[in-house]
Amino acid sequence: MKNIGLMLIGFFVFLLLLIMSVFTVDQREYALVFRLGEIVSVKKEPGLYFKVPLVDDVKYFDKRIMTLDWEAAAKFNTSENKYMLVDSFVKWRIVDPAKYYVSFKEGGEAAAEDRLSKVVNAGLRYEFGKRTVHDVIAGERDAIMDNLRKRADREAAQIGIQVVDVRLKRVDYSEEISKSVFDRMISERKRIANQLRSEGGAASEKIRADADKQREVIIAEAFRDAQKTKGEGDASAAKIYSSAYGKKPEFYAFYRSTEAYKNSFKSKSDVMVLDQNSDFFKYMRGAGGK
Questions:
Q1: Rg of the chain on CA atoms, in Å
Q2: What are the tens digits of pLDDT across the range 264-289?
Q3: Of 175, 81, 75, 176, whose CA–CA distance to 133 is shortest?
């Protein structure tokens, strides 16, 4: 019985030492093996590993891509000495857990993000400081992000970190220059509107003058044609009268006299003072001339 008890104790001790000698690494993490405070092994691949029990210690580090996103936008000065509000984020991951641990010790992820934040902010200050507002907002935004990523990645490599991407979510005017920008935009739009009104007024006057000119020309041509037609009509009438008069002079003289009588004696109140022997009364006299 005593031997069985010793065997059971030995088995449990062996099992305990075996458990303490084995550790696993997940595909989402790295593992550092420490022996008396010194790094003796780096495990980057997932699997089952062994360590010296009671002597070795294991620390795990996340190998997934992490995001550093600031809560508030930061101010950066452009080459025109104008402040811009910049909201950005960084995608990063640990690629060298040994360097990472040596750089931050017990500070961990918070210390790493603080260091990375300083690196990115310094890069933003440099990139914005050599560009104008237009370049920052529209012209060279992609170039800024690419330069930032490369610059931050070079410096972060010294602490075991890879900067995967740097993105500018929002780049906007600060409050102190927004009003001046809006006022300038309004002034420019008013200037354009006044210019268009002026050009429209000039075009309107030109169209109106052309219309008046065409109106005068049309009226003059119409009056000319009317006078021509009237003259031709009068000439035709005179020709007809002359022809008729030549055929029957006496009858024509009688017809003209009766027309004159008709027009002269329309009303009883009409009074004419003429010599009774006047030729006007020629056809009103009798056969004896009375």
A1: 57
A2: 666 666 666 666 666 666 666 654 44
A3: 81
